[in-house]
Each structure stands twice: as C-alpha cells, then as structure tokens.
Q: What sequence folds into this?
C-alpha cells in the first residue's frame, strides 16, 4: 500500500510474478477500495490466482516504526505477517517502511528459538553472479555473536535457496590480514574461524564485486552504507557515460548509438531490481523486504525470492540449525 | 622505497611532478644505491630540483606498523618525517605501509595541540567534481568528538587548499532523517549541528556520488569500506563492459571501438590516481599518504596535494583552529 511508485506498480509486479510462476497464488493486502479495481484490471487468465486480503490501515514511510506498529493493528504489513503466522500465507513481502516491516515481522512472527537478532540478506552483482551481503540494514549496532549467527544463516540460505554447495564466507574488514579491522571485526574473526563454515577470513569492499566470495558478513550500518555506495556509484557512472557521449564527436555519438544493447545489458546487471528483495532471516516465517521505491520488476523478483524461500523451506532449515539441543 | 609498483615508477612520478610545477624541489628519501642511478636518468632540465636524502632502512608492507617504526629508526618514512620536523622539507609523502606511515607521521611530527586523533581526507568522484571523505582508514574505532574534529579539519582543508567557500558537510549514515543511524552517528549528529560548519545533516552512501555535499564524515572503518567498495564496483563495471562488447554483434563491437575516447575519459574520471593521495590532517606538518600500489600518475598527483598543502599553509590553519584559548 505504501510503495513509493504507487499501488498500481505493485499490482503489475504481482501479475508479472503470477505469469512467470504458475504454481503461485498471491494475496494483495490493503485497502479493498484501492486494490479491487486494480486486481480486476489484471489479465483474465491470472486473476483467479490473485486474491484480496483487506487491511484498513497503512504505515507511512516517515512514521516512527515501533510506534506505528503498536498503534496501527490493522496496517497492511501487520495483516500480511498475521496471514503467515496463521498459515494462510507461506511468505509475506513488504515494500514499505523498513523499520515498520522489521517490527511487524519480528513481533508478529517472532524470532526463531536461539536466534539473537534477525537480519537482512541481499545480493550485489559481482560479474560472475551475485554476492550475498548480510546484514544489509536491519541491525545497526551488533555483537560479534550476531555476526556469527548471520554467517550461519546466510550460509544455510545460499545452500538451500540458491544451491551453492559450499558458500565461501568472508568478514567485511579493511584489510585481509587477521590483525586488520575494528574492535568488532577483530573480536568476530576467531569466532568465525571456529564456526561450521567455509570461512575465508577478512575480505575488503572490493572483494564483494570480484566473485571471490559468496557471502560477506558485516553489521547493518556498514552493510547499508555498502549497498547505497554501490547504488550511488553505479548511477553516477551511467550518467557520466551519457554526459560523455553528449560531448563526443559525431563518430563517438555513433559509437554510443551502436552500443545501446551493451548498455542495456550492463544496466540490467547492475540494477538492484534484478536481485528482488532481501530475505529477513531469523524470524519464524518467510519475510521479504524490498526497496520503498520498488518498480514492477523488483517486486516480481521479490516475489520470486519469497517463492524460493517457500519451495526450499528456508525457515525450517534455519529453525533446525539454531534449535538448542534438548 | 616500498611502493608496490617499484621505485622506478615512484621516480617517474617525481619527475612528472617537477615538470608540472616549476616551483617545487623534491627529495627522494631512501637507499642511495637504488635512488642515485634512477635520479641520474631523469630529464636533465629537471635534475637540479631532484635531490637525494639517504635512508638505510625500509618498512615492508607486511610489517607490524608500531613495532617497525620503533625498531627501524632509519626507515625512509621516518627520515622523511624528520626532514619535515627539522624544517628541511615542507611536506612528506609515503606510498608505503599505511599503518607505519601513520605511526611515523603522528609520532615524529606530533599531533597538533587540541587534536584528538589525526585522520585521512581523500576524494571520490561525484560527476561534478570530487567529494571529500574523512576519515578514510586511519582511525577504525572513534568517538563522536573525533568525528566533529574531522568535520572541522576537513572543512578548513576544503576552504583553504581547494577554495570551496562554504563546504557542505554531511554525516554518513543510513537515512536522512535525524533518527536514522547507529549509536555513534546518533550521538554525533547533535554535536555537528552545534559546530561552526554548514552542516547538512545525515547523508547516505549514494549522496557521496551525486555532488550534493562537499565533505562526508565517517569513522575510518566505514570510510575505508566505502573507498574499496567504490574501487571494486568501478573495476567490475569496466570489466563487465569489456565482456559485453566481446559478446556483442559486429555492429556492437564497432560501437565499442568508436566509444574508446568516451571510455578513456570515464576511466580517468573514476580513477583514484587523479585524486592523488590522502592528506593526514591533525599532525604538526604536511603529510600525504597514497596507495601502496600507486603508479606515476597517482604519485605525481599526491605531490600536487602536498604542494597545495604547503602553498595554502594548511597545517598552520588547522593549528590555529584547534589551539586552546590562552
């Protein structure tokens, strides 16, 4: 309901996902007055798999998350989480206020037994595929034990939802040597060495993009800075390219024209839309958080991420890994 | 002496700088057996402004910085700092072990009175010019007061060495709203609001690259991650472009050929070589740290940064700003 590009864009994403995956059914949660006409406009062959689930309230992007979650019991994100909790849906997706989504998911679904802080796993392009980054912004101040739990959760996610047999896990730091880092990473490094992982030690920001590791672990503040730095730089490079072509010779401009397919492909590789959404791992249910200004491509892909979580029973795998021995 | 691309590359950078700036004299500090023949090979018109200053030891890239600084009294970086301390040089530049450079500069030159932790200011491209980032990796665990001091030092640097009348200063965080951030930034934000700066509040990773601020302040761990993330992504994008062209149609490949000048210009915009080196601000003397694998372009530009510091008397400006009232 609160996606910054509007509800219509979200519904387009919903139908795109239904078209791409014939075994899905999707519930659109929100104001029936808004959603009903939009769902009615969808392709007739798909409409029977698109359902409406009413919610009378919405949490705005600027609202204080904890407060909004408490007072707006019938907010769309809370209703979506309750559907999962009650077994009426197998995953929930939110493109709204990240803090409120976190609160709704954590408090409605609950944390998995043994998990300290649920966190968000997202993907960045690395030329050969994608590198997972966790945490991407859920937990801004964390303990070394949290980083170790995220490494374990991210590892399980890559193994089960993405089929990476033995994910290479790195700790984001500022040098590869063991003694490089800050107080947090220096304390975390020996703990990760003892964890049941293919831990490759400290990695640097540049290693995220060269395909040398599958999962990079960092605190949510640093992870969010990495995501937004990459987003900003990629955008700047594309607009610099445009500006350079504008100032180029006639032949250079022809070069730009002939290069259009190359740039379209590059833009697709770099686009966060392709990764879809970030899975919130560590809660007792599948929950996907996407960008507040997600377009239909990103929403379709976020739904694909959710479907992957369902098909591979990701939450059950996490629950099993963290369940304290009886 | 320890630059990863070799001493010859460094000496090329030295002569390039002498050619570009006729009022400079440069001392090459290190092993005379290595340096003398290289200096003798330089352009004859420039040789009279290139001097040799002997140092018998070097600190390797892998040595423990504090220990190496203590035991190797005659290391080239220490000799260079002593030349500044004794007034025989007006700035020192190191492309070696960053930790050892920091130790040599901080302990030989000393901190400016009133400065808690010296830190490194570097530049990133933003499409319109460059955005300064401070700290870039000197101090990995810091206090809010340090961030405030860096904002003040960076602000002075931009005003005096770069002629930015009223630098826009932002605090790197994970959302623009005041309540977004981690414990460190939340505590720092109100302090920066009270500082004598044009403080524009929290900024995000993407704002570094859009020209909306002149100086971004963050702790050295985060700053170093930002630098290396940007470096890694830029490299990945350039190699993706190459790969895309290789797979393109004949016409697409022609497009790539005709676009060569555009890519050369883009590569130059993105290259860290253009920014030169990072100024270590807060020590009692001008000291520039550059990449361990600096090429001649980067070294020439690092020397330009040093010359800017000298010409605009940057250290004196800092000293004046931090001197406690008598």
A:
């Amino acid at each position: 309901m609160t996606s910054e590009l509007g509800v219509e864009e979200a519904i387009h994403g919903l139908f795109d996902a239904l078209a791409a995956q014939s075994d899905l059914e999707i519930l659109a949660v929100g104001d029936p007055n808004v959603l009903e006409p939009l769902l009615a406009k969808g392709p007739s062959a798909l409409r029977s798999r698109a359902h409406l689930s009413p919610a009378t309230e919405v949490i705005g992007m600027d609202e204080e998350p904890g407060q909004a979650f408490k007072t707006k019991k019938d907010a769309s994100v809370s209703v979506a989480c309750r559907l999962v909790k009650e077994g009426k849906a197998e995953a929930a997706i939110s493109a709204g206020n990240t803090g409120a989504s976190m609160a709704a998911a954590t408090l409605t679904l609950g944390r998995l037994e043994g998990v300290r802080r649920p966190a968000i796993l997202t993907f960045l392009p690395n030329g050969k595929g994608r590198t997972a980054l966790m945490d991407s912004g859920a937990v801004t101040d964390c303990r070394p034990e949290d980083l170790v739990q995220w490494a374990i959760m991210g590892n399980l996610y890559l193994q089960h939802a993405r089929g990476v047999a033995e994910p290479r896990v790195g700790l984001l730091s500022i040098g590869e040597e063991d003694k490089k880092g800050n107080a947090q990473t220096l304390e975390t490094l020996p703990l990760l060495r003892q964890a049941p992982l293919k831990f490759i030690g400290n990695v640097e920001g540049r290693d995220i993009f060269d395909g040398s590791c599958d999962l990079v672990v960092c605190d949510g503040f640093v992870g969010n800075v990495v995501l937004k730095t990459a987003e900003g730089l990629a955008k700047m490079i594309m607009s610099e390219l445009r500006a350079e072509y504008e100032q180029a010779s006639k032949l250079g401009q022809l070069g730009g024209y002939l290069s259009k397919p190359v740039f379209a492909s590059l833009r697709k590789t770099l686009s966060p839309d392709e990764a879809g959404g970030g899975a919130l791992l560590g809660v007792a249910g599948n929950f996907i958080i996407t960008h507040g200004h997600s377009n239909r491509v990103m929403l379709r892909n976020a739904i694909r991420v959710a479907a992957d979580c369902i098909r591979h029973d990701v939450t059950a795998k996490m629950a099993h890994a963290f369940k304290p021995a009886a």
